[in-house]
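Hi everyone,

Forwarding the result from last night's run.
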Amino acid sequence: MRFLIGTVADLLLTGNPGYTANTINVVGDKQYYAFRLDEGATITTVGVRQNTRVNTTGSSPAAYTGTVRIGIQGLSATTGLNDGTWVGGASNYVDVSSWTSANDGKFVTVTLPSAVTLSRGVPYCVIAELVTAAATGSVGIAALFSAIALNGSFPYSLDETVTTQAGKTAALARFPWLMRSASKTYGLPIETWSTTAIASDTTPSEVGLAFTLPAGSGSNYKVDGAFLGFSTPGNVDFSFDMVLYQGTTALQTTTIDNAQLAAVGSSRRHDLPFDTTLSSLTPGTEYILALKGTAASSTASITIREFTIPASGDKTAFGPWGFRYVSRTGTGAWSEDTTRLPLFGLSIDEITTTASGAYPIFGGMVIK
């Protein structure tokens, strides 16, 4: 049995990821994101990602001035569409009427008038609906991720063009959205996709995902490999290292030869095993999974696929693993970027269980 944990553990890249948008400019236009939580939560904040906007004539600063109503609704058990009832009360929503250029490519978040308690396993949706249109202009709200294979029957993202249950089949995919409680973020708060190119002579020359398994997940565990989002140039023979660290001490190192990778030249998820003796790791201790450039940039660079989040606390949306983005140059100290994460993950081969013999399962874990 293998346990996979990562920033997005079931993500498969089909190219360089991005966003598709729903254009909002006619009253009734809406974008909503259906979901079920795996735990009860009291939600105070919701957010949608603004892709871009077309300015309303005469608006200053550059903005779309139509009013979009944002909140949480239930889902119809008959159609699977939003049921029109605001969770937490008939006026428990926020109207946003200034969609400025400063928010292009960012999440627009609102604090609900009243916090709402959502139940585990119950279908809800975060919804943004145009209730007053401006005479001109529009705003584009992110509907789906592009170049990502995460299709499935739930959760799903819909817009106003879907009016029947059958219509939902065209909109099955993962999507950017967020909700926050006082202590945790839910959803996929991926604000921007980004990259970092590394080589032996670049700054940084190494990028890693720091992680900590919760203390309650057993007495020890072993990592047998990783799944990593990156691209390398085609037709170039060079190598680089995949390393598991505790601090700056390497526990496992495997050299990867570019000639032995498929789909070079485009971002992909590469599943790579370590070829050294598995390290026995301790829950509650932080480790780092890293890619290290060992060839000069004049030969080739590795392009790490990453994403940014609106705030440091939004890392909690990706599981209880204490994920941190770290990088360094040469053998120097690791430094952290608090609002960035690499598309990295771990394959855990073995967990020594607790006294009860039960395997602990946490959010963000995939079992294969």
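Residues 194-367 form a domain with the Jelly Rolls fold (CATH 2.60.120).

Cheers,
N.
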